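Weekly sync, protein design subgroup
Attendees: M.S., D.O., the rotation student, P.L. (late)

Item 1: inverse folding check
M.S. brought a backbone from last month's batch and wanted to see whether the design step gives back something sensible before we order anything. D.O. pointed out we never logged the input encoding, so this time it goes straight into the notes. Structure tokens as presented (104 positions):
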């Protein structure tokens, strides 16, 4: 959820004309990550946890891609997106671990 909050703060500084484009996509991807983890956890079966953690990984990949796009378009400097990408990398590692542990 920390990444989601950070993405919301980051997107508040993006251009207004991206409100319904990149801003919306970034926020939706960011919210999807913890939401799918929560849904998978609530199902109480390893198979469902794996499925929803995998969906979270997909949303995380979308978020990383969109952050890179924002940087390439000049909407943000690398020093603004790098901390978010670092958080995303850490979350990705945790999600892979969660998937591995549920497969065991």
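Designed sequence read out in the meeting:
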């Amino acid at each position: 959820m920390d990444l989601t909050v950070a993405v919301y703060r980051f997107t508040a500084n993006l251009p207004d004309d991206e409100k319904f484009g990149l801003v919306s996509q970034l926020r939706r991807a960011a919210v999807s990550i913890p939401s799918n983890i929560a849904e998978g956890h609530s199902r109480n079966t390893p198979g469902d946890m794996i499925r929803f953690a995998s969906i979270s990984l997909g949303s995380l990949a979308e978020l990383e891609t969109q952050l890179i796009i924002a940087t390439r378009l000049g909407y943000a400097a690398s020093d603004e997106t790098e901390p978010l990408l670092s958080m995303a990398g850490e979350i990705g590692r945790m999600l892979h671990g969660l998937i591995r542990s549920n497969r065991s």
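Discussion: Residues 74 and 88 are 20 Å apart (CA to CA). DSSP finds four helices and no strands in the chain.
Action: P.L. to compare against the previous round before Friday.
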